Amino acid sequence: MATAPSFGDWLTWLAESTALTDVTVVAMIRPCLECAAMCDKVISALAQNSSIVQLRLVECTLETAHLDALCQNAREHPSLGQFVLTPFCRVLSAVCPPSCDWPSEGFREAALQLQNVVRQNASRMCAAGNFVLGEVTRDGASAIEQLHDNPLLPERVRDDAGLTDAEAQEKVKLAVSRVRYCDVHDFLWLTGVVRERRATCLDPEAQGLHILDLPLECWSCIREYVKIADVAWG
């Protein structure tokens, strides 16, 4: 006879499940330490999940450490593109307005930092999707390098262009290949170093080996270590 999963098993599932992409947690406010501890563990588990795209926490009591963990995970695994926190407010009486705990300075800074990271993630996913669909930009190419294996990118392309799963996967594959295996001319163009897709040496009579003279094999090795985002521009 199968046994029901324990609370610990459920927490592990929350932290590791790739099926969790759109999550809403509504806390049932009860004046007990056990409930608060359980809510703390649930949020901590969700902060470890790298597949969540949208996370909404309603009337959950968060600590600065929770926001820091969410922010760190969002940086390392840039899937989280929306985060909404509805704080818990206590209704003191029928005639008094709700009372909300005013967050500390550290909490507000952590919340702002998380929102900035989430906003960057959403912008990056948008740029990558647009690149796949033909809008060739530096930001899009850089986003492709960062999100090339993100399972959410094909879904974004599929939904934006009305494609089938197979068609979206193929378009993403072609875009990733285009960026990963671009030659030195396309790399200089994508990074904004040159305006034309065919770069030329400024001083044809200069001595020594020029980057444009590198064999493709050597350039391919260099590309393993140099990403589009590494090149300063502007």
Can you give me a brief rundown of this structure?
By secondary structure, the chain is mainly alpha-helical. Helices cover 50% and strands 9% of the residues.
Could you describe the 3D structure shown?
There is one protein chain. With 234 residues, the chain is mainly alpha-helical. Helix content is 50%, strand content 9%. It has 9 helices and 5 strands; from the N terminus they run αβαβαβββαααααα. A 3-stranded parallel beta sheet has the order 1-2-3. The chain has a two-stranded antiparallel sheet with strand order 4-5. α2 (33-46) links the parallel β1 and β2 (54-58). α4 packs across α6. The chain is elongated.
Strand composition percent: 5-15%
What overall geometry do the principal axes of the alpha carbons give?
A: elongated
Low-confidence stretches: 90-99
Mean pLDDT: 86
Integer-rounded radius of gyration: 24 Å
Structural class: mainly alpha
The end-to-end span amounts to 65 Å
Percent of residues in helical segments? 40-55%
Number of helices: 9
Q: Based on the structure, what is the oligomeric state of the protein chains?
A: single chain
